[in-house]
């Protein structure tokens, strides 16, 4: 990171920012370069490792690319505020951001899918014990990413 003075390295603070984010952009590669898609997400920390969870229809470009790749990148950001100045170079922008990458897979195990969907729902609600209809769970695809490295920045 070029601006070390803006880097956040304290794990609890990084998790606090992750928790406050509403959208995660998943970065995959295709024949034309980067393919980036915004997604709802869930997360958890287990024994110091961070796991991100996503879901969607089981077909389409996103899942086609995931089936071909084992690694992906991600980005989250929040707390956007424009700072105006008297001259163009005095303008600035405040934000918090997280970037990283990890190992990605599509979950096939029913119980793992339920767990991931509960993590996703608990991120957007105060409830952790959601129930899902079996036929709905079987229709959707659920993605798990084990984060291998990540960084956090605040300006």
Put the structure in a nutshell.
With 155 residues, the protein is α+β, with helices and mostly antiparallel strands. It has helices spanning 11-20, 61-68, 110-124, 134-139, and strands at residues 7-8, 24-30, 33-39, 42-46, 49-57, 71-83, 92-107, 140-154.
Would you give an account of this structure?
The chain is an alpha+beta fold. The chain is 25% helix and 48% strand. Strands 1, 2, 3, 4, 5, 6, 7 and 8 form an 8-stranded antiparallel beta sheet that branches. The chain is globular, with a radius of gyration of 17 Å.
State the distance separating the first and last CA atoms: 13 Å
Low-confidence runs:
none
Summed over residues and divided by their number, the pLDDT gives a mean of 92
Extended strand count? 8
The H-and-E topology, N to C, reads as EHEEEEHEEHHE
Number of helices: 4
The major pleated sheet works out as: 8 strands, antiparallel
CA radius of gyration? 17 Å
Oligomer: single chain
List keywords for this structure.
8 strands, globular, alpha+beta, eight-stranded antiparallel beta sheet, 4 helices, single chain, about 160 residues
Topology:
Layout: E1 7-8, H1 11-20, E2 24-30, E3 33-39, E4 42-46, E5 49-57, H2 61-68, E6 71-83, E7 92-107, H3 110-124, H4 134-139, E8 140-154
Antiparallel strand pairs: 1-8, 2-3, 2-6, 4-5, 5-8, 6-7, 7-8
């Amino acid at each position: 990171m070029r601006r070390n003075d803006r880097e956040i390295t304290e794990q609890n603070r990084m998790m606090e920012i992750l928790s406050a984010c509403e959208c995660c952009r998943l970065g995959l590669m295709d024949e034309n370069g980067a393919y980036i898609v915004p997604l709802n997400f869930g997360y958890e920390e287990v024994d110091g490792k961070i796991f991100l969870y996503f879901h969607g229809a089981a077909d389409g470009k996103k899942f086609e690319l995931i089936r071909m790749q084992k690694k992906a990148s991600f980005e989250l950001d929040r707390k956007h505020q424009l700072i105006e100045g008297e001259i163009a170079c005095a303008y600035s922008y405040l934000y918090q951001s997280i970037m990283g990458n990890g190992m990605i897979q599509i979950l096939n195990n029913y119980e793992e899918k339920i767990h991931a969907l509960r993590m996703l729902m608990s991120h957007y609600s105060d409830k952790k014990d959601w129930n899902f209809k079996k036929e709905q769970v079987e229709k959707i695809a659920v993605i798990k990413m084990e984060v291998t490295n990540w960084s956090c920045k605040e300006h």
